[in-house]
Amino acid sequence: MSLTPAKINADVAELLGCDPAELTPETDLTDLGLDSMRIMGLVEQWRTEGADTLEFADLAEQPTLGHWTRVLTGSAA
What is the pLDDT of residue 77? Predict the structure, then answer.
């Protein structure tokens, strides 16, 4: 899988239009404007990049960078 914590952070920051350094593992991404349509876009993007079993609920239930990094890489952000 080509998804690394840095790649996940960069993808989310790009989508939100912010600097990756602004995002912490605890940041609630919905507070920054992330909505369900954008989450679905990330799910589709990351599936094509190797996260074959990723589901919308995996990300939506806990919309923090730290949680997403653990789900996608098996390790903390």
Answer: 57
Phi and psi angles of residue 74, each rounded to the nearest 5 degrees, phi first: 80, 5
Longest dimension (CA), the chain: 29
pLDDT surpassing 90 at residue 59? yes
Can you read off the two tokens belonging to residue 69?
């990094």
Q: How far apart are the first and last CA of the chain?
A: 16
CATH class of 5-73: mainly alpha
pLDDT in tens, 17-52: 999 999 999 989 999 999 999 999 999 999 999 999
Q: Which residue in 70, 1, 67 sits closest to 28, CA to CA?
A: 67
- Residue ranges per structural domain of the chain: 5-73
Distance separating alpha carbons of residues 23 and 48, to the nearest angstrom: 24
